[in-house]
Write a structure and sequence with these properties.
The protein is about 40% helix and about 20% strand. It has helices at about 35-40, 45-55, 95-110, 130-145, 160-170, and strands at about 5-10, 20-25, 65-70, 80-85, 115-120, 150-155. Strands 1-6-5-2-4-3 form a 6-stranded mixed beta sheet, sandwiched between helices.
Length: about 170
C-alpha cells in the first residue's frame, strides 16, 4: 500500500501524530527554527533524552542524513524523530543527504511502529535549501521509500512552502 501524503499549513509542534520529525542540528541540543520550537513546547524531557543519546551513542553528534527517536515530552505526538539536514551548497550536490533524512526518519518510524508521521520542510529554513527543490526531494523520497507508515503529513510553516509542496505533489 502506498503511503498517503497530506499537506498542512501550520505549527508542527501542535500536530497529533505517532511521530513528528525535528529538523535538528548535529548537537541534538536544540537550536533555532523548528528545532527550538519542538524543544520549547516539548519541555525538558526531550533535551534530557537527547543529552543521554549524546553520551551513549553520538559523542561527536548525529551525522547529516541520519535520524534517531526520543520521547515527545509534552507534545501531542508519540515520539520525536530527530534528523540532521544538510546545509544547501551551490558548489556541491547534497541532495542524497536531504533524501536520506526522509528515508532514515521513515525507517526509524517503522521501528517505532508509527502509522502517522509529520515532517517539516527539512533544510529549507536557515540551512538555505531552495523550497521548490526541497519539496521535490521530500515528495519523491517519501513516495519511493519502503515503509509501513500509512500517512506522511508535511506541516508547512507558510503559504509559499505549502504551494511549493502542492506543486511537487502534483508533479510526482
Amino acid at each position: 500500500m502506498m503511503v498517503r501524503i497530506t499537506l498542512v499549513q501550520g505549527d508542527i509542534t501542535a500536530e497529533k501524530a505517532d511521530a513528528i520529525v525535528n529538523a535538528a542540528n548535529s548537537s541534538l541540543l536544540g537550536g533555532g527554527g523548528v528545532d527550538g520550537a519542538i524543544h520549547r513546547r516539548g519541555g525538558p524531557e526531550i533535551l534530557a533524552a537527547c543529552q543521554d543519546l549524546r553520551r551513549s551513542h553520538y559523542g561527536k553528534g548525529l551525522a547529516t542524513g541520519q535520524a534517531v527517536a526520543t520521547t515527545a515530552g509534552r507534545l501531542a505526538a508519540g515520539h520525536v524523530i530527530h534528523t540532521v539536514g544538510p546545509v544547501w551548497s551551490r558548489e556541491e550536490d547534497r541532495s542524497h543527504l536531504l533524501a536520506s533524512c526522509y528515508r532514515e526518519s521513515l525507517r526509524v518510524a517503522d521501528e517505532l511502529g508509527a502509522r502517522t508521521v509529520a515532517f517539516p520542510a527539512i533544510s529549507t529554513g536557515i540551512y538555505g535549501w531552495p523550497m521548490d527543490d526541497g519539496a521535490r526531494i521530500a515528495i519523491q523520497t517519501v513516495r519511493s521509500a519502503p515503509t509501513s507508515v500509512e500517512e506522511v503529513r508535511f506541516v508547512l510553516f507558510d503559504a509559499a512552502a505549502h504551494t511549493a509542496f502542492e506543486t511537487a505533489l502534483g508533479a510526482a
